[in-house]
Amino acid sequence: MTLFQFEIFLAVVQTGSFTRAGELLNASQSGVSHSIGDLEKELGVTLFARNRNGAKLTDAGEQILAHVREILHHTEQIKQAAAASRGVNGGTIRIGAFPSFSANVLPGILQAFRGHYPGVELLLFEGSYAEVEAWIKAGVVDLGFLADPSDDVDSVQLLRDPYVAVLPALHPLRELDIISIEQLAHEPFLSLKSGCERLVMHAFQERGVSLNKQFEVAENSTILSMVEAGIGVSVVPSMIVPAVPANIAVRPLNPPLHRIIGLAVRSQHEVSPAVAAFIQEARKHLA
Q1: Domain HTH lysR-type spans what residues (predicted)?
Q2: Which of 22, 153, 179, 260 could staple 165 via S-S, CB 3.0–4.6 A?
Q3: Do residues 46 and 40 lie in contact, with contact meaning Cβ atoms separated by under 8 Å?
Q4: Mind listing the pLDDT tens digit for each residue in 84-143?
Q5: What total of structural domains would you count in the chain?
Q6: What CATH number corresponds to the domain at position 39?
């Protein structure tokens, strides 16, 4: 048994897929399958039930999962102890982030950090809110940027990102300076399926407004293109909207709606000096 096999095992558990586990660890699907096969052969049990929908833990796999997590947790602590003796002049930081943040805000943070700590390697893992939080809990990433972090991780608040209504350029509501939730009630609605839609759905429910949902869209650029084409309207975080949007109207909401963006770790008491320095640099950059 090797630590890399355990990392692959945990990545398959987290993603539910041999292919996605390979993407996460920069390994091929066949390499992941071979490593899990070798581990199963050595242990004498089947760890995953494979089917066309992915991979699911067997009972035997469930029993060893907690032990694998504990081993990798202690391994990380050993690495952190070594990093502490070196200071913050080397090492690697694995960063999780959702697409709109990694495209619009993260580059500035990375540039500022590298200016102070050029010897630290930075690796980016991009995914949905749920994926980033799962990566933090599983130790796949050292820290992650999340919207509305749960209480299951330690986090610090960095900024508030307001939601806005986005409309086709010639939509009648474009004449208004502010748009209410009620005014969007009967409009064909395009829902952004990335995690941030939960807050939007909750806002509609709180106002007792029915939502005329037409499509659910995963990509930020796709939903803006569909609005531009006149297919419907949407409510999205302002961060995903271009500085000079073309052929769409962007209006603030009444009442205002925000997502809280924070930086999260599994435990603030267990971060390495490099990760602590990164957190401090991120807070300073966004202050």
Answers
A1: 1-58
A2: 179
A3: yes
A4: 666 666 778 999 999 889 988 999 999 999 998 888 889 999 988 888 998 888 888 899
A5: 2
A6: 1.10.10.10
